[in-house]
Amino acid sequence: MVTVAGCSGSHGGARAQGDDLDISRLLEATTYSTVLKAPLDTNSSNPGDGTVLHPKTPQPVYERPGGPPIARLPVTQLNSPAWMPVIASRAGWHQVLLPSRPNGATGWVAANDSLQVAYTPYVIKVGLSDRRLILLKSGRQVGSWKVAVGTAATPTPVGRTFLLSSLKGSKTGPSPLILPVGAHSQARDTIGGGPGTVALHGWRDRSVFGRASTHGSVAVPKKALKALSVVPLGSLVLISK
Q: Would you kindly state one Gene Ontology biological process term found in this protein's UniProt entry (predicted)?
């Protein structure tokens, strides 16, 4: 993963968490959970500034700065280090996208020395109508490919999400690499035995590219998958109609 890392260095946010908060009792914000009180992303087309963060220890997530806790961030997501994109910041606080349902769920994390802050130059854009994935680095297009997207019955969800994990595919599977994102199918509760998590992945049959043929995930050509393999976790994925 290519990032430029550093620590937040702020203790003010840590005090705001409250010394008596038992975060083990909070719902863990993962791709398997639903954070009902999470505020929704209101700027879903914004490419952000590339800031991402990683909790080195489990962190409470708040509905708003100084507000009630609604969940906790784990250190890992799907066996990968947990990196979330920062979509807003204010004194002592970071607002991040969550990997949980509902799609577009967000939460606020208090800045403290247990957060590793980094930068990613990459943004991934997926256009559903033209069935195309565009990879940007530092605002410049570095790749564009026709892809397969969800069908009318199982559409790929639109909005702002992020690369959640990097998983090695099975030798007999359709893709050597699977890149789950922090969004879920709104038509199915489960995909492939999982919680309906949408992913970017390869596909052996090249005839699918340019078609609406998946259960909601985005199938990409071999060259696209290779390019995506170096994109840091936490990088934004903008899916539009």
A: regulation of cell shape
- The reported pLDDT for the residue numbered 172 is 84
Residues of the chain with pLDDT under 70: 1-19
Fold (CATH) for 6-119: SH3 type barrels. (2.30.30)
Please name which of 202, 166, 179 lies closest in space to residue 76, comparing C-alpha atoms: 166
Task: Label residue 95 exposed, middle or buried (CB < 10 Å: 0-12, 13-18, 19+).
Answer: buried
Burial class (CB in 10 A: 0-12, 13-18, 19+), 68: exposed
pLDDT in the model for residue 19 = 62
User: Residue holding tokens 């959970």?
Assistant: 33
pLDDT of amino acid 12: 39
Q: Which CATH number applies to 122-240?
A: 2.40.440.10
